[in-house]
Design brief:
Mean pLDDT: 76
Helix content: 10-25%
Order of helices and strands: H
Number of strands: 0
Length: 97
């Protein structure tokens, strides 16, 4: 994903931050490529902005309290189910009565 500036986002302050896929359509393209097997999944890199001299911290999954551990929440809509056609061959029909 190197060089994909469409995914660059600058955060200020502390707390939870998120990427909304409607604002970053290339995010959908990348993840769908992982699902389809057409792109290698090397994950995402979180890094601070070049020239930034302040402190940057990321908690790990072992961090205490657990309420401050990082989360990945994915909301998705499954594709609609296609229609199903059932054909019954009268010669195969049987009566259980």
């Amino acid at each position: 994903m190197s060089g994909d500036s469409a995914l660059n986002k600058v955060f200020t302050g502390t707390g939870w931050h998120s990427w909304d896929s409607s604002s970053y359509p290339s995010l959908i393209t990348w993840v769908q490529g992982w699902v389809n097997g057409t792109k290698n999944n090397y994950g995402f890199l979180l890094e601070r902005e070049q020239g930034y001299s302040g402190q940057t911290s990321y908690w790990t999954r072992q961090h205490d309290p657990s309420s401050e551990r990082p989360k990945l929440i994915v909301y998705y809509t499954p594709p609609p189910m296609g229609s199903l056609t059932v054909t019954i061959d009268p010669s195969e029909a049987r009566s259980d009565g």
